[in-house]
Design a protein that fits this description.
The complex is a heterotrimer of chains A (362), B (293) and C (419).
Chain A lengths: L5 H25 L5 H26 L7 H21 L5 H27 L4 H19 L3 E5 L2 E5 L12 E5 L4 E2 L7 H20 L1 H11 L1 H6 L4 H24 L4 E2 L6 H14 L4 H17 L7 H14 L4 H21 L1 H6 L6
Antiparallel strand pairs in A: 1-2, 1-3, 4-5
Chain B lengths: L1 H30 L6 H17 L5 H24 L7 H23 L4 E2 L9 E3 L4 E3 L1 H23 L1 H11 L1 H6 L4 H26 L2 E2 L5 H14 L4 H21 L5 H15 L14
Antiparallel strand pairs in B: 1-4, 2-3
Helix pairs in contact in B: 1-5, 1-8, 1-9, 1-10, 2-3, 2-4, 2-8, 2-9, 3-8, 5-6, 5-8, 6-8, 9-10, 10-11
Chain C lengths: L9 H41 L3 E7 L6 H21 L5 E7 L4 H14 L3 E4 L3 H14 L2 E4 L5 H4 L17 E3 L4 H15 L4 E7 L3 H17 L2 E8 L8 H9 L4 E4 L3 H13 L5 E4 L21 E4 L8 H14 L5 H20 L7 H13 L16 E2 L5 E2 L3 E6 L2 E4 L1
Parallel strand pairs in C: 1-2, 1-3, 3-4, 4-5, 6-7, 6-8, 8-9, 9-10
Antiparallel strand pairs in C: 10-13, 11-12, 13-14
Classes of the chains: A mainly alpha (362), B mainly alpha (293), C alpha/beta (419).
């Protein structure tokens, strides 16, 4: 244990967290101790974890406020649904193949869209960047509301008017404008979700700890300084943005394949905000925090079902309190008091350690 | 004639956006926070006015005053409880808090007022203007909305440039630290900004619901987002910018609906925003602040 | 342990403390909840075992934009269940109604929650998109589902469109209490054509709503084949459902003398007000979504004068059943019930009747009950008369659609009058 670097230790503990959570859930499921309600939420939790981790790459690590993450999720989701429907029609039956192919396709298309959106967006900064990502999210939603896609024996049909102008015969309507996609085969599984979470975390952590990642963080911390040492600022910001979009796309596929229907309007501004809340609550740049926050906040509204009418009200209050309380003077004083007490005990035991203590790692 | 009708409708819609955007821009300029709960304060203002008129039987003008007072108080309370402790926190935490406040207001309204939409009978009972043999009809609400927008913009500009409080606000917006050193009470200045912003939101709420008379707990959210867009379009932090951005956004929206298609109108509005920001990254009338190295 | 490990910083500590706090809180809540679940599941099991009551679940939006529809269903289903239990017959019900915020994900969550509670029959969901998702779940669990108001054909599945394209296979356990959207479109076009209500027709519909688009598509097809002249078609979305000046100008400039509004009453109240402001007064024709217009608080009912609509239910019908239901609803909830409420009320009674016919008992499991109910509902001699069946008996086909007659109504002096 002695030689492990801080980064590696933190990385390992993140993976361990996911795997332990997975094993615990599997054991509980085996023992039939998990309610249907929680069981039904396992896949969406995985999807939201992926989304939170990928958004953390943009918001926490690259330092750009993005308010349109749900847009990329929906691009991935709809791409995945179309690919899966086409494959199913072509006779592919293995669910694993269907899922993997559509997830890859969803990630690819969402990544490309992310890159295209990123090129103009990365010219801006701060709140202007935030509003433009919001705008792109709304545009994506609006366009998807006008897409009609169907498949029949002659191939894929596309229209922007209505489903009857597709000109199909005996076919399947995959995407029906604002009514979205219906009749999706439910092929997402918890195992698939956990694998996707592991992949997402691996991609983000590797990127963070690579040369590119250090460049991205350098740009976040001081753009001008980074530029002056020869870092191509736009390239690295764009890279983080496109990778995050691709991961969001894959998460979108996971999400879509868990329900038999998705509609464009459910991937709106509020969903983007929801994901952002996970990231902020979990801590900027803190991958483990994002995972815990996403899981916790997804389960929370369901746990509050008992108080039905007041559910969303309590949720709002929790959100405000979580943000406000750590900044209250009394709370800080309390924490300081506890800290001093522990520190004293600690110092008595390991006097030399305290002197050496540095900043914590993420 | 059709173009003229659309233009006037666009200006009417845009004026409502502009009044909301003015509130956004004031708060942003001084407190440097995106107050996503602003749209919901509009909804609260409209509900107060509705209740005052329908349940208490007060005259329209009393309803408006009550609603302005109510929202001002609400703005100050929310600022004190939710935003003030976060004055030194990262701006994203403040953003999330604002979203929490927004959810809170919406759900509180749902519990108190119920889910059924209320029809807001217009507070303006003047006859409509009929021009060109009735080919062009301009309702009194439209006229009043546009006038209110201009008056409010002028009053705010005067306030921030001429009065002591206004100057203090501008000082806070330029450099909070220096303003404190000069003896300006930053906390009370920010509270004041929230009071003004929320009061404006109440007026916007009443006008919005006079022009488009449905009132639901979620009434404020979409206009809120659009107004936020308008404020950025005009250059966030700039008062004339917010008014200009709002009116432009309204006109673009109506024209896009009339000539491109109702379903793609929102996409067009946001696309225009993106293009404008790429040409002028700080908005139409925003100041391009050079970065300190 | 490495000495460096215990290196201390305030930042680290706070993070750790808050993480522990969150985890602690979470486990506490989880524990609280799971024990709750067990308790309620236990009691459900107990009551099911003692055979006292059927566990009926309900799902609909109780918060958010569409809350009014979910609330109506919840209230009315509760009235029906209370009435049935009070009567003290052999069939007793227990109702648990959960919120879905009009969102597919939340709706499936609500469904799973109800399963934990021990639901045997589902009355829901209220809105279409969530219903498509939930009906898929009930289908794989083989749990009987009767939706009061989710009218899209995707809910029941197996309905080809005009070109024979199918998007969802038939879900045998799912039935509707309301008309399917296409039926309303066809019926409206036929009615307008038969009664010669208008020569130039404009349509304003909600493009982001499956209900509205479904009716519009079928209306358009039928109008074409009947030779009705549609001069203007315009749409709006949920995000832009405030300003209708463009759509109304379109209709006005095209010289439309009848405007067909296959939408809910909230945007209709806006359209009527705005049309009045611009001095445009065509005939208005709506579908069942228009019911509720007269009860919008603060709405000037003068504007609705002469509006026509096809609807299965009107709150001021004079039959005894409707009057008793309406007065109970008004007394308990302080508002006039709309057609969602009436449909939900009928759902509960239709299920009761089917249970009696099939001779089911509460100690059967959900799947047995489902098989029995499906058989009863689709059998030729099962029919049900209630609030929304216009005095005649409604029957169900294998397809899950209900067959009943809409009533043509016109608003005169702030009241519905039969056309």
């Amino acid at each position: 244990m002695k030689k492990l670097s801080k980064t590696l230790r933190s990385t390992l503990s993140t993976y361990a967290l996911i795997i332990i959570a997975f094993i615990v859930v599997q054991v509980l499921m085996g023992a039939d101790l998990i309610s249907n309600s929680l069981q039904g939420q396992l896949v969406p939790i995985c999807a939201y974890v992926c989304l939170a981790v990928s958004l953390n790459l943009v918001v926490g690590i690259s330092g750009e406020l993005s308010l349109g993450h749900a847009g990329f999720m929906s691009v991935g989701a709809f791409t995945g649904v179309i690919v899966a429907a086409c494959l199913a029609r072509a006779g592919v039956e293995a669910e694993l193949v269907l899922f993997v192919v559509s997830a890859v396709a969803g990630a690819l298309v969402a990544g490309i869209v992310g890159l295209l959106v990123g090129i103009p967006v990365m010219r801006l900064r701060g709140d202007y960047l935030a509003i433009v990502t919001l705008a792109f999210g709304e545009i994506i939603k609006n366009l998807l509301n006008n897409f009609y896609i169907g498949v029949d024996n002659a191939g894929l049909h596309f229209s922007m008017q209505n489903s009857s102008s597709l000109g199909m015969e005996q076919g399947t309507i995959i995407v029906n404008g604002p009514q979205g996609a219906v009749g999706i085969d439910k092929i997402s599984t918890f195992v698939g979700g956990v694998v996707l979470v592991l992949i997402t975390v691996a991609v983000v952590l590797n990127l963070m700890h690579s040369r590119s990642g250090r460049a991205i963080m350098a740009v976040r911390d001081n753009r001008i300084a980074a530029e002056s040492v020869g870092i191509n600022v736009t390239k690295y910001r764009l890279m983080a943005f496109a990778v995050a979009s691709a991961l969001a796309g894959a998460a979108g596929v996971l999400y879509a394949m868990n329900y038999s229907t998705i509609i464009p309007s459910q991937f709106d501004f509020n969903t983007s905000i929801l994901i952002l809340v996970y990231v902020v609550l979990g801590g900027m740049g803190n991958i483990r925090g994002s995972i815990i926050a996403a899981a916790f906040l997804t389960v929370l509204p369901e746990l509050l079902r008992a108080i039905n009418d007041y559910r969303m009200l309590i949720y709002a209050v929790v959100l405000i309190l979580v943000m406000v309380v750590p900044n209250l003077k009394t709370y800080q004083r309390l924490v300081d008091m506890v800290r001093v007490r522990i520190l004293k005990r600690d110092a008595a035991e390991q006097a030399p350690a305290a002197a050496e203590g540095g900043e914590g790692h993420e | 004639m059709e173009i003229l009708t659309n233009l006037i409708n666009g200006m009417s819609l845009g004026s409502v956006y502009a009044i909301i955007a003015l509130g956004y821009t004031m708060v942003y300029g001084i407190a440097k926070m995106l107050n996503f709960a602003h749209g919901d304060v509009i909804m609260v203002g409209a509900y107060i006015c509705f209740c005052a008129i329908s349940y208490l039987g007060l005259p329209a003008i009393a309803g408006v005053i009550l609603s302005v007072v109510g929202c001002t108080v609400l703005g100050i309370v929310v600022e004190r409880l939710a935003y003030k402790p976060l004055r030194d926190a990262p701006s994203l935490n403040v953003l999330i808090t604002a979203i929490g406040v927004s959810y809170f207001l919406q759900n509180a309204a749902l519990l108190i007022m119920g889910s059924d939409p209320k029809s807001f009978s217009s507070i303006i009972s003047l006859p409509a203007l009929r021009l060109f043999d009735g080919q062009l009809v301009i309702s009194a609400t439209t006229v009043l909305t546009i006038v209110a927008c201009v008056v409010i913009m002028a009053a705010l500009t005067l306030f921030t440039t001429k009065t002591k409080m206004g100057k203090a606000m501008r000082a806070c917006s330029e450099d909070r630290g220096a303003a404190t050193l000069m003896g300006i009470n930053v906390n009370s200045t920010i509270s004041m900004v929230f009071a003004i912003g929320s009061g404006l939101a109440a007026i916007a709420g009443v006008l919005l619901c006079s022009a488009y008379p449905t009132l639901m707990p979620t009434t404020g959210s979409m206009p809120g987002i659009k107004a936020f867009t308008a404020a950025v379009l005009g250059g966030i932090g700039s008062i004339p910018g917010a008014a200009l951005g709002g009116v432009l956004l309204g006109i673009i929206e109506i024209f896009a609906r009339a000539y491109i298609g109702t379903q793609l109108a929102d996409a067009v509005v946001f696309a225009v925003l993106i293009v404008m920001l790429l040409i002028k990254p700080a908005g139409l009338l925003g100041k391009n602040v050079s970065e300190k190295v | 342990m490495d000495i460096q490990n215990s290196a201390f910083s305030r930042r680290n500590f706070i993070k750790g403390a808050s993480a522990a706090g969150v985890l602690g809180g979470m486990s506490a809540v989880l524990a609280g909840c799971s024990s709750d679940d067990n308790a309620s599941a236990g009691s459900a099991g107990a009551s099911a075992a003692s055979g006292s009551a059927f566990m009926i679940g309900g799902i609909g939006p109780l918060t958010g934009d569409a809350a009014i529809y979910g609330k109506a269903c919840q209230n009315a289903a509760q009235i029906a269940v209370d009435e049935i239990n009070e009567e003290g017959g052999d069939v007793q019900f227990e109702l648990n109604f959960q919120d879905d915020e009009n969102d597919a994900e939340r709706s499936v969550n609500a469904y799973n929650n109800l399963k934990d509670w021990g639901m045997q029959i589902l009355v829901g969901t209220t809105t279409t998109a969530p219903c498509v998702a939930v009906s898929n779940e009930t289908n794989s669990d083989n749990l009987f589902q009767l939706t009061p108001s989710a009218s899209s054909t995707d809910v029941i599945g197996g309905q080809p469109d005009a070109d024979g394209n199918i998007s969802v296979a038939r879900k045998e356990n799912v039935f509707q209490m309301c008309f399917t959207d296409p039926n309303q479109g066809t019926a409206s076009a036929q009615y307008i054509s038969e009664q010669q209500l208008g020569t130039k027709i404009a349509i304003i519909y909600n493009n982001s709503d499956a209900y509205s688009t479904g009716i519009y598509n079928k209306f358009k097809d039928e109008a074409d084949s009947l030779g009705l002249e549609v001069v203007a078609e315009s749409s709006f979305t949920n995000d832009s459902a405030t300003d209708f000046s463009v759509q109304l100008n379109d209709a006005k400039n095209a010289g439309a003398d009848l405007v067909f509004l296959p939408i809910y009453y909230t945007p209709i109240s806006l359209i009527l007000t705005q049309a009045n402001q611009m001095g445009y007064a065509p005939k208005w024709f709506g579908v069942d979504g228009m019911d509720g217009l007269l009860t919008v608080e603060g709405f000037d009912t003068q504007l609705a004068e002469g509006c026509m609509l096809l609807t299965p239910f009107v709150a001021n019908a004079t039959d005894e059943a409707t009057q008793s239901f309406v007065s109970k609803y008004e007394e308990q909830f302080g508002e006039t019930p709309n057609q969602f409420a009436a449909d939900a009320y009928d759902c509960v009674y239709a299920i009761k009747q089917a249970i009696e016919t099939a001779g089911l008992t509460p100690d059967m499991d959900a799947s047995e009950i489902c098989d029995g109910l499906v058989e009863t509902f689709t059998s030729a001699d099962f029919s049900y008369s209630g609030l929304t069946t216009a005095g005649e008996a409604a029957t169900w086909a294998d397809t899950g659609e209900v067959s009943k007659q809409p009533m043509g109504m016109v608003i005169q002096n702030g009241e519905y009058v039969a056309l």
